[in-house]
Amino acid sequence: MLWLISATMHNNNMKNITISEQYLNISQGQIFVRQWMPDNSAHLDPIVLLHDSLGSVELWRDLPQQLASLLNRPVIAYDRLGFGKSSARTGLPSVRFVSEEAELYFPQVCQALNITRFYLFGHSVGGGMALLIAASNAHCKGVISVATQAFVEERTKEGIRVAQKAFQDPGQLERLKKWHGEKAQWVLSAWTDVWLSEGFADWNLIQEIKHITCPALVIHGEDDEYGSRAFPETIRDNVSGPVRMEVLPDCAHMPHKEQTEQVLKLIEAFFT
Q1: Does residue 257 contact residue 140 with C-beta atoms inside 8 Å?
Q2: Mean pLDDT throughout 228-248?
Q3: In this predicted model, what pLDDT tens digit does every residue of 209-237 receive, in sequence order?
Q4: pLDDT for 175-199, tens place per residue?
């Protein structure tokens, strides 16, 4: 484990939040991690963030600090292997990559950081990963899924095809390189090629999420270009623990960026 940097931020609510970064050595490479630690919160169970298909720690923007300040609780985000500042991967992910994050990579992150109990916040496919972790790990105390796919819709594939066409513009890939460096093309292919493959067409979370017994908050945008309200309804109807579903009007695939205030209010209520 290599510590890189530690700094204390003073936010508008007069709370000190210490931000630290490190690389974790796991069996497949190095995982980049950033933590936001409010004063006197080290004893509390952290919220772990799982990013979307093109995401990274940096692309969470201000959300981790907002959550740390709002809830006075540690927040942890990491770049999945192959993304952001984590080690590159060779070969595309398998069609089991969502399950593999829950079964293989996330446990190694927890072990390296000495995390036992935790909450999860996942966006898009990161929400699917969060749900599968919650389904299989009794130490998960609550899970928040945002714009999460529960299966593969035609709307999902069409949204990906539109994005795939947009990325034919070289400028789009250059912008992706800002966050992923020379891994950018792999990141794009890991999303489009896997999700549009025949082998992934029947993927879904339905049977696994029946094992979720911790509280769940399911947030979705009414205008999400990658999935209809059938996704949050499927999650709501199949988890076995207490669940609240919120479909936000005038909102697409990024509720935490498009309607930040509303999402933060829902999360605050979830923790109350």
Answers
A1: no
A2: 98
A3: 999 999 999 999 999 999 999 999 999 99
A4: 999 999 999 999 999 999 999 999 9
CATH code, 68: 3.40.50.1820
Q: Number of structural domains, the chain?
A: 1
Nearest by Cα to 120 from 104, 105, 135: 135
Distance CA 172, CA 95 (A): 26
CA angle 107, 110, 112 (to 5 degrees): 110
Asked if the structure places residue 2 within a domain, the reply is no
Give residue 88's pLDDT. 97
Q: What's the rounded Cα separation, in Å, for the pair 184 and 191? A: 11
Query: Rounded to an integer, what distance in angstroms lies between the CA atom of residue 104 and that of residue 41?
Result: 28
- Residue closest to 265 by CA, chosen among 251, 250, 255: 255
Please choose, from the candidates 123, 125, 167, 161, the residue with its C-alpha nearest in 3D space to the C-alpha of residue 145. Answer: 123
Extract the tokens encoding 16.
């000190």
The pair phi, psi for residue 180, each rounded to 5°, is: -125, 0
Query: Beta-carbon neighbour count of residue 263 at 10 Å?
Result: 24
